[in-house]
Amino acid sequence: MKIKQVFDGIFQTIFWLWNLTFLSIVYLGILPVIGVPLVMATIDGIIPLEFSLTMAATSAVPTVCTVIGASRFSKQPLELMRWFYGVEAPLFLLCLLRLFLLRELTPASYQIIATIALCIAAFSVEMLYGYLGKKENVQNISDSQTSHNKQHRFFRLIGEKRSAWLQLGCHSLMLVVGIWAATLLMYYAVPVALYTLYGFFTVVIEFFKFTWVSAFWDIFIYGAWVWGLIWIPLWFILFGLTCSLFVVMPSLYGFLYIHSGRKIWQSFAAQYGKNKALIGSLGVIAAWLAIFSALQQQPQVAALKMLATPPANDAVRQTLLAKSDMIRSGLVNAYLSPYRYLSTVGENNHIYEIYKNSFNLPDGAAQTVQNSYNFLMSPFLYQGSSADVEKAEKLYGEFFDTELQKGDREAVKHAVQSTSNREEVKAGLLNVNQEKVWLQSQEVTVKENGDWADVQLYEVYKNQTSNFQEVFYYFSLPESAAVTGVWLGDTDDLNKRFVFTVSPRGAAQRVYNQQLVQRVDPALLEQIGPKQYRLRAFPIPAKRELIQTNGPTEMHLWLTYKVMRQPQGWAMPVLAEKRNIFWNKNTRRTIAGKEVKYKGKEARETWLPLFLPAVAQQPLAAQQAVLPGENIISAKPLADANYSLPQGKKFAVILDTSRSMAAQKKEVKETFEWLKANAAGKNAVDLYVPNAAGMPPKFVENVRNFEAAKVTFYGTVQLKDMLQQFAQLRGDKSYDTVFLVSDRHSYELPDDRKPKVSISAPLWTVHLGGLPPGYDDATLKAIQDSGGGVATDIKEAMQRVATTAASGKSTVSVVDGYAWSYAQTPQSKKTAKSPAVAELKDTGNEGFKPIAARQLIMALSKQRSSNQLTQLDAMHAVAKNFKVVTPYSSMIVLVNDEQREQLKQAEAKSDRFDREVESGKEQLSKPNNPLNVSGVPEPEEWLLLAVGAIGLLAVVLRQRRAKMVG
Question: pTM for the full model?
Answer without folding.
Answer: 0.80
